[in-house]
Structures are given as C-alpha cells and as structure tokens.
Amino acid sequence: MKVNNIRELKITTLAENLVQTGQGLGQWGLSFLLEFYDAEDNERKVMLDTSTDKETLFHNIKHLELDLGAVDCLVLSHGHYDHTSANVEVVEATGGIKVYGHPHTFLPRIFQNKKGKRRQVGVPEGQGVAEIEAAGGKLVLSSSPVEVVPGLWTTGQIERVSFERTWELSEGERAILVVDDEELDDVVLDDQALWSHVEGVGQFVVTGCAHAGPVNTLHQVQRFGGNKGIYGMVGGTHLIGRSDEYIDQTVNGFRGFGMKLISPCHCTGFKTTATLWHAFPEEFVLNFVCRKIEVGKEPERRII
Asked: What pLDDT is stored for residue 23 in this prediction?
C-alpha cells in the first residue's frame, strides 16, 4: 500500500461531551473536521461523524465560522446514533459529497437491557442511505481500507488481535445487529478510524469510538503504514466503564507505540481519561468542544 504524505493536519472538535470554551455547546456525540494539504498541495477538508444532536453540532460549526461547502467528504466511523444523527444535514450543507462507511453501518441496531426492554441505537430514522442519496450524497461502503482523499485513509474493518473486547455487558444485556431479519450479537465490525502520514511528524490516527479497541486500531494502522511508530491519536476509546485491570492493559498497549500526543474523548470516561493523563503527562491533551489540535505543534494549553 503506497501512502502519500499530507501536511499541516489540523483537527477541530465539532461535537463532544466536554465543554471548556464559552460559546461551544456539548452533547453525548462526536464529530471532527480534519483540514490539511495533500501531496499535490491541494487544501482538503474531511468530516468524521455527525454527532447525536444536529442543532448543537451546527451551533458549533457556526460559532467556529466553518464553511461546510468546502468539505471534500464525510466518513462515518460506525453506525451508532451518536455518530450519525446529522448525516443528511451535513450532506446538504456541503452541496453533495461522498459518504464513506462499512457495509454494516446502516443495518438496524438494538440494545436490550437486563429487563428485556429494547431501544434502537443505530443510525436514526431519516438519516439512512435513501435520505443521504436524496440529499445529493454518494455512499461508498467498504470493509477494506479506502483512501478518501489523497493521503487520508480509513482503516477498514479492524483485525481483532489484542486483549480488547467490544463490550462489557451484564447478564441479560445484549447488543444486537439485524442482518437479513436475523438478530446477531453485535461486535461492531463496522468500527473504523481515519489515519494518515503527516510530513515531518509521522502517522496519526483519528478514532470515532474504537469499538474494535484502540490498541487493535493502532496495530491496524501500523500494518498498513509499514510498521512505523504512531505519532499520536485523537478520539474515542470506548474505555468508559472498564475495569482498572483492563485500563492498565490499554495503557501498557499504548506504551508500545511511542506516541507523542494522546487526546482521548467522548466514550473514554472520566476515570480512564484521568488514568491516561497520569500515565502520559507529557503526551496527554485534553479534548473538548471547539478544541483545535495542530498535529506536530505544541498545543497552547495541553491540559485545559
């Protein structure tokens, strides 16, 4: 796999749980804007995910004075509602773009609690394939890595090779994926991340929830990127509610990549976020709504 370098990668958090600035609004959801120059010196903008609450998302976009008309494409990290609730509105605002995902992204998803009560947790009604296409979007669904713009790749379906588990479910709970009217245990095979090689810096990864496991995700990037080190990662880690032992295993897994920047958010959870800060005090960057991270540059305030 030939990987073209990009340069001057900037990541802006459009939607996230934590708020530090005065005018950004928080939510349980995630969305990023990636901006960079490709190998041919073309300016590129790519969105990853569209959050839970569309009004909050667009409030932050307006506050940041961002022009979605310049966005090249939208990538969906996986098919949960907190990452896919403004698909149509984003596509409309761009004037029609390609939307990348996995073949499972738009399948029905259900969570069943201990009492057997069920709720839908997949892509919300009105944000699916037909509506995206009607809004001018073109779906590109692949389980293999895809170069969405020159130098920026999806991981594709991530190989599960580490200790990591998709869920920590209690007895009676079940995560369900509906395939051809059959209810299967959902291990979120559609989970994927974005990655690139940033000129003068190294490989960088942006995750949605990392249901496949953040360590597995980083290993996947190493395999496709030539087994080089990982400069850093930004995004969800799905470590909320994990045991101390599991979190410690993740910390040890991270150490093997030699990362210089670690900015967990969204589904990481307070306990794990604090643990990662203490484990990587020089590398840790707190993420929050409207945070801008320029890869390879020292953030103005690493913690707050």
From this structure: 80
